[in-house]
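Let us practice reading a record.
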Amino acid sequence: MANTIFESFGIPTKFLRSLSATTFLGLVTEPWLVLLIQRGRCPDNLDLHLTDSEIDGLLAQSNIQVPQPWVRIVIKIKEQYSTRKQSNDPSELHSIPYTLHGHLDNINQRVHQDMWRAVYSKYGEGRQSTPSSSQGFQNVTGPGHMSGDLDVFQFVLGESSSPSIVPVYAIKERGDCLIVIEKYIPHSLHSILAYSPSIVNLSLAKPLFLLYQILKVMQVFHGHSASTGDLSIHNVLVDSNLWVCKSAVGTDRHMAKHLLKRSESYANLDTVTNSRVDVSLLEKIENMDPLHLQQHYNQLSVELTDLPALVDAWVNRRISNFNYLMVLNHLAGRRMGDPNHHPVLPWVMDFSGPDTGLRDLTVSKFRLNKGDHQLDLTFQTFSSDHIPHHVPDVLSDITYYVYKSRQTPQSTLCRYVRSKWVPNEYPHSMQRMQEWTPDECIPEFFTDTTIFTSIHEDLPDLELPCWCQTPEAFVRKHLEVLESDSVSENLHHWIDLTFGYKLSGTAAVQCKNVNLRLVDNHTTVLNHGVVQLFQEPHPHRIPSHTACRATPPRLPKNMFIHSSLPELHEDIDKSQNKQIKGPENDRITLPKMYDPLADLNQLEASYIFSSKTFRQMPKTTNQQVTGGLDPETDSVWRDVQSFACLACEMFLKDLVQCQDGSWSLEARFTYLSQVHRENPSVLPRCIISLVQEVLCLNSSTTVVEDVSTRGHLCLFKYPTVNSRGLPPPTPAQLLHPFVNLIPFPVYFPQLYECICNLKHKDREIEQIRWKNNSSLERGKLIKVIAREKVTVLQHFLEETAGCYGEEGIELVLPYIQELFVQEETAVQAAWSLFNLIGQELGQKETARIFLPHLVRIFNVEQSTPKHMKIYHRTFLVQLLVRLGLDVFLHNFSTLLVEAVAGYRDYVFEDLYVDSAYPSNTGSQEESTQELPPVKEEGLNEEDRFSCEDTGPEEGSEEEYSEEDLGVREDSQQGESGWMEDEEDTARLSDLSQEDDSADKVSIHSLSGLIDPTQREESVSDLEEDRHSLQFQDEADSTDLSPHSESLSSEPSGAQRATKSSSMVRSETDEFAKTMSEKSESEVINIKDVATESIKWLSWRLGCVLTAKYLSRNLIRMLTLCYLGDEQLITITDSEKRYSKTSRLVYGDRNAHRVLRCLSDIAELYGEQVVLLQYIPCCVDMVTLAKKRLTQKGEAGLISALVLMRHVLPLISDKSLMDILQETIIKDVLSPTIKLVSSSSSHFPGGSTIRTVICHKLVDVIYVIGLRLGFEMTRNQMTVVLKEFFSSFNQVYGEQMLRSESSQSLTDYKQGTGLQVGSSDDYLNIKIDSHTNEYTIGTPVSIGSLDSAPSSWAVRKSHSLALTEEKEDSPEGAVKDAEKVKQELADVFNPELAMASYIPFIRIFGNTHMEKFLSNEDLIRRLCTEYDISVGHVNNSSEPTSPTEEYVSPPSLQEAAAGVTGNKIEVTTTHTDMMRFGPIHRSSRILTLDPDETKCEYQNKQRHLKGNWLAYWEHEIGLSERDSIFNFKQIKLQTFEGHTSSIRSLVALDNENSFLSASKDKTVRLWSLRSYGDGGGRCKCQATYREHKKSIFSIVYVDSVQLVASCDSNVHVWDPFTLESLRQLDNNGSNQAITAMTALPGPSTMIVTATNEAMLRYLDLRSAEYAHEFKSSTGSAGLVRSLTVSPDNNWIAIGFSSGLMSLLDQRTGYLMATWKGHEGEILQVKAFNKNTFVSTSFDNTMKVWNSEDIKDTCVLRGHTEPAHCFTFYKNQVISATTGNRIGVHSSADGQASFTAAKLRSDTFKGVLTSLTVLPLNRTLLLGADNGTIRLLC
């Protein structure tokens, strides 16, 4: 076999491994396989650069993956069949309606048909139905048997439509065998059950889904008229995702042997039935091309003695009309191609319509054409040369040639038809041909499509009827009419006229059918003519609607006429007196055209015909061969039985480990029967019904006979109707939900269809990958199809949301994870699927499974425009809700900050690689385009918050608008959104169900992401309602880019097919084209999206979390913006988009948006953020650099100065004066000057980094000077001025500088002719004649750099994840003095002198600088030298103008600034005196408007002050490792609105909104905001008022975003609309609810306890109770508290009697009941999956272990009952009625305890409830007076 494969495909035998006798595992290269698939031929050679051991390793089946370019294939050798079968559509076969009515109707029909067939097989003499009319010649003897294998040619890659069949790569015929190459599937059911049993052990859905798929595979096989073979765990293939597939090539030797025996049996049957008919020859004629029809017809050998069997076969509809008539023509001696003796068939229609104009077959065609009068004339005329007759011939030679004139040469036609060629004389159409001819038809008009095509130029093609378009369709339809019932019922008349008794005698005269050839006395010898075969009337063909046929008749609806029932119009009295008879007396109405005696009449006619014509009786069929079981049913039953055995083996894998693939089905069944007999309970409940009905193991012991003796393939036969009233089992029946033999979950059909669609996409991708397309086109096609997989899964998750449980999610998870891993689909999968699957999984599982994938998507090596989606707040909301706030902050806050700096941006030029669009070279510059800004000021603060000490007016909440009730997103709510998690969640469950097509379009539109028309820098309002998670908000849907619609659409499969030759344009291409049409400033990148998202997050997170996770990381990111030499390259800012600076470097571009985010946070929370966080960070960075100068240290110096310069405008005058000397000057500026000018300090960045630091120093000093004014600048900043300029002395030497500077200046003045004492003595500044700007150096174009700063290496070096690593060690030895001196000389050069001297003159004044600068002459000389050097560089031909304006600094009239306290007061400002002319206002010299150094806060409502400031300062000062809850009793906020005691508080996961329930019968919704100084009083956002009693419990179920509140009745309502969905009352059962709790996510259930100690589970999706459990065995009192373990395994119950119960909520089993406390239980809460805590009126708090039901310890400390408690990390926070708050450090015996009594000024009233906000470390406390306070 291996040699055969080598000879066929050229695969060396060393690359083959035998798996069985006919199956081999092969190793080839991918190029080899591509060439084989593309060109259909074997490559010349195979790369053999592998050793034998390497080949063995690659071919080892345990090696799941092989390295490229190697690919493993399976080669199978199978027997080749002589003909291919026509397959049916599997989807249309064996389908049963999934409705109850359809199911019952189907069962009724099947039972009726099976019962009919049972009787038919006994009395019908083995009759078979007529073969399909479209099949032409048919086998006249036997049925089409079901083959063992599929036709592999239908499953070649690209041809197969079934993903459950292994694709075939290539097929090669060799002799009588086929060599098939298939895709290699490494796993089988056996490998999973043997080596990975836990996959199916831990989940019932997985093995059931495997069985479901196997049944679907069986349907595919049966749909192709093939048997699946004996299914076993060894031949069912499974991939890693548990997708089942089956090979199209069967390898079951047992099944092959049985099929061979059965075929031999049917061959014997054929021999008995039709002893001498050449069946194979007719079969060949049926399938042969019409060109060979004549040859094979002429070779037929049928004798007269064969006629009885043939006649009987035709009468009983076992052969077709066409076949029978051709046999009669053969027996009559007619020869194909003989013009005078060609076979004839009847004209059956006039072609006026496809189903009209049928011919009358009781008269001849000649009579129809000529009429009775003409025939009477020819018959009644007597003369010597005329013989009376009616019909001259059946088919004349002239008619024959006219029929075939289109294919007959012109010379022949002129010889036989008409000597002169006149094309118009020939009929032009089939309809005209039928009207013209008096003769009968020929077979070619039923089989040959070429007869209509003309070979003559002047004779057109034979015109077809108008209802037919092609010759093929005409031939098919013509043959269908011949085989129709209407023709069949009268065809025996035509046989009598043409071949029968109506050719002679009185019958011929009566029928006007006297044929001339029979009455011409035969005076000449002829070899052709009319032959009369029969002397008796031919029996008629049994109609399809007669009694004895294979299919039962269609019964009428009202079969019984109920004459026994009273008439409706009769009176009641009469009807009562009338005797009602039974139905046995009713009259039965038979179906129309149904004659029970038809078979008897036919049998009588047949026997008379055979006895008188053939002198013998028709032969009967030997029915004992098949035992009354047709082959198709036999194969289906065996397949079903093998499936049932396979199902048992899957669940009994431990008992069948010794089984291998050689066991026959009979042996497997016998073994399973013995196992079941020994232990009937060994089978799981899910397949017991299957075993009982299919394998009948519960019946008496049945010994399976050998297949050779039992006469059928199936193990045993099934009754027509079983005990359940069902017909015998089929795959479709086993799959039907109403049959329920196997309890398949309801979502299996949708899941299977979804996975099938995914597999179809994979097949398309695989087909494209093997095609010979360009790599670019192939890649784009693959991306388009791969993204369609996301849509398929999205639709499935939306349609089946909440229907599949935890086990169902496990089935679909692998396919979702694949999309998250694949680069082409990762972003779209995250955008479209994450929310849907996260809703089903819950936060914990979602984080465990998808967090690594999400982080990898954010950390992608090369970003694309699609990645902008995941940085948009729409997706961030999903992350917040589905992962939880804590996980989000710890994993994604740093990624967002990195994106703000631009290190996640896509490279715009890369979008045009191999693209048709030109690149936009200007797109490298940073974009200033912004997202639609998040509004920081919505409604006026006073309109939404009450700052008074009085409570709100009763009922005032009802006047709130929808936006005030928390429906909006919190970015729009700003200060007032109550439940940002839900508006953040934005009704995530409803998001995917939106039908708005505009929003659907915008979801995937990159252009629709940002509104390019909004360019305002200020923050504006943006509504985000419950549907805000759509990518484009409804409010913005009309503002989409003009290109958004085209961008969002993806080509369908049909479009891809029609445009396969054109370039597929991806969404990125469209985005690139859109961006290329925009200006440089309009180009949008990831940093733009991330910046707006940071701004939005800072609004919703609150002051503490923003400071910890955003602003702190932004400052760290600022350092990284200046890390690396490439960040220090000088660039230009022609569009003036960045802050003005003395020197703009590349790092400033990246830091621009970081600084903007820091400013936004400062503007939101006030200047205390700057004073207490930003400036201390600057000091820390300078201090760190002083201790150790590393690359990060020197970058930190720059970032400290940049941040200082940026935040100075955000500080008030008072605050600036407070920190100026001690912080800014002493801790930042002076140390930085000393560092940068020190000859002993080594900067790893050399002179470049020193230069940038000096320029940033100039920026800071200049901004401070502008803020202070002249007087204050001189008083406060002179020391800094002297320190800065004294640094120049280290380079030139003080004495030499003074002498040389005087001489140099004198020479210069003399050489240039300037007058001594003029204003130009100080500076001679040159203006560029071309730009009219002063230049200080040649800028470096960033485009000229060799390496782009956005490379992956730069990204990694600027990742916040790496900043915690060990600092880079400074270089070893310090440079020698000469090198350091040269370095300083490069820094303190004329350029720096010019860049610093001019701005400092503006803030200090010339006179002051002359007075206090000892080297002022040196500085001026350096400025002059720089001016001269710049002049030479620019090659300016114009000398410096001596008349340029110069205004001396003000002296007596200069501005005066005074200090009142520590506030700067500028009394007079002469800004005009500060001008130095246009030359000093050049863009190359730092110039700022004094107004730019101040910033007025627009909205101060959330600024930190008072208690909020104290709390914030305390929290940001804590270490991240400090996990102790330190309760300081700082009051932050008071919430007023309730009028009675607070009973329950629920804080949402977002920690900025909560719900409260009170005795005042209301539930209120609140928003948490940092507002006021701690004394503010807030109103609620919405109120639910539907309760009629005091509310004692409330829960919020995140998975469905619904609230359940309880007042002894449970209300389920929507917190977004306050709409009550269901109010579940007691219904008079007196079972009031006493406690309630929610099950952990992702469950949608809550559990309630009744006053009868019953636990009732309420499903919020349907708002109905699902089931209930008993929580105690005796009288235990009322249930006071419930808690569920985090893993959802157990539930603990506390009773009023002190008893406690523990119940397994998975099974309802009551695990234990014990006396837990001596007093009433107050509260029970789960601490972890093994521990829970309870408190009681007996003043104890106990910790319990759920495993051994023991009190682990008692938490001592409180002397009063702790009526409420909660957990913070591993600490227990409890509260007593004495208003004492206690904290236990842990939940064990070693816990320490601290307690504090609430002060009366902090908390008023009696504490009734509490909850903790863990991330913010705050407590919400409810009181008996209705107030709620937020304390820390």
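A brief commentary: Residues 1246-1286 form the longest helix (41 residues).
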